Amino acid sequence: MELDIVELSRFQFAMTALYHFLFVPLTLGLSILVAIMETVYVMTNRPIWRQMTKFWGSLFGINFVLGVATGITMEFQFGMNWSYYSHYVGDVFGAPLAMEGMMAFFLEATFVGLFFFGWDKLSKLQHMVVAWLVAIGSNFSALWILIANGWMVNPVGAEFNPQTMRMEMTSFFDVVFNEVAQAKFVHTVSAGYVTAAIFVLGVSSWYMLKGRHLELARRSIAVAASFGLAASLSVVVLGDESGYSASHTQKMKLAAIEAMWETHHAPAPFTLVGIPDQEARETHYAIEIPWAMGLIGTRSLTKEIPGINDLVAEAEQRVRRGITAYDALMEIREDPANASAEARFVFEQNSDDLGYALLLKRYVDDPREATEAQIEMAANDTVPGVFPLFWSFRAMVGLGFSFILLTGYFFWMSSFKGAQYPRWALRLAVLWIPAPWIAAELGWFVAEYGRQPWTVDGMLPTALSVSHLGVTDLLITIAGFVMFYTVLFIVEMSLMVKYIRKGPVQDVAETDEWMDRHQARLSGMTRAPFSPNPAE
């Protein structure tokens, strides 16, 4: 097996996936915030809310277009770099991707056009409905992608067919309502809502510091702070749900995140900080919180969380059973029509462990010829990199709690202190704009790196999933993606900065006149009746 090809393919997909996810969370969150703002406009008929809707909607549009462009290239990579994976799981993995295209992408793309070009064609109520359909389409798109991704973690509703050597779907219902997929979906969209809230909060704070667009900024801060606080709290709660799901679907990943080398007596402690040493299989200078991991991972005080060493020993047994399954599979494949009932029975009894035998393909062409040392190495391969997982998770969690504090503070100031924000808080909000993206990228790193060495957990090793490409082919495509995505990043940042600096230029005259009239009414002054047409 050419490991360089595998690593280059992994690097390329990781690079494009992480880059694509720069756009996804802001699209998810801004679509909801824009719909909320337009709903307030329809309910109050105040032009300032229409102005807010158009301004934040324009930033949503820039982000949406570039997110679509980068997302399409990711799907092409399944055929380019991961052709065996596509062959192996295409019957299952292709279904949610097709649903994403039919139900979500077309819905989203159609109503995005109506949102931007329908202001003078639709009534206020109709346009508000369009805004919500854009938001629903955006979130539906995430749902189907995460159903596909969740199946890779917990491959339910499908079984391996020895005749076709492929996974085949047995229950679409089980695939859709996979517990891992549902937990991933709610956690991911909540993270997107936090990203948009911090973005709106930071940009609005910049306006406040510059003394520009103050009415828009104050109202945007109020909306973003309340929405962001609710979303930040949801991320913590729903992240806990993902941890509980991992305790019985991804035990090795959970143990690696906690650098839990040995199985603790229940309830297990949570390692707050430490320095994991994968060679020595111990964590130096560990500071632990008693009972916390047991409560998070098992929701009880009596259930154990298995440690890495015990899970490696279990993996070694599964490799041995996988070899038995592989031997029976080869007998069935030699003469499918006349394969013995005993071979079929042996395969059925051990088929769940076939993927563990395939881990041996890294060391030997035929797993049945593996030595004891190779079996041990294959079992040890089931342990992902502990140090990067351990600290990536803690950095993500730390940032998550910072979002609660930041949005909570601005919510308090907006609701109970007359929206009078100190300059240090406004500066902090501006500086904190990149933080949600960092947290989101760390989250995806933990999710995907923590699944290694599997593409489909327990079934298909990553090393077997790649296409038969040369190193030169991969280096050329990686260079092409780097150049193309660099250009797109410059375009994205230039457009976003340009429109943020420009500010809300739409409906300014109408909004200003309405605000003057509103302030005059509050001060008891009398003015001429308001007209949206300055010529009247």
From TrEMBL:
The chain crosses the membrane at residues 20-43, 55-73, 93-117, 129-152, 190-209, 221-239, 391-412, 424-446, 466-491. It is found in: Cell inner membrane. Its EC number is 1.10.3.-. The keyword Lyase does not apply. GO terms for molecular function: electron transfer activity; heme binding; metal ion binding; oxidoreductase activity, acting on diphenols and related substances as donors, oxygen as acceptor. Keywords: Cell inner membrane, Cell membrane, Electron transport, Heme, Iron, Membrane, Metal-binding, Oxidoreductase, Transmembrane, Transmembrane helix, Transport. GO terms for cellular component: cytochrome complex; plasma membrane. InterPro entries: Cyt-d_ubiquinol_oxidase_su_1. GO terms for biological process: aerobic electron transport chain. It is a multi-pass membrane protein. Belongs to the cytochrome ubiquinol oxidase subunit 1 family. This is Cytochrome d ubiquinol oxidase subunit 1.
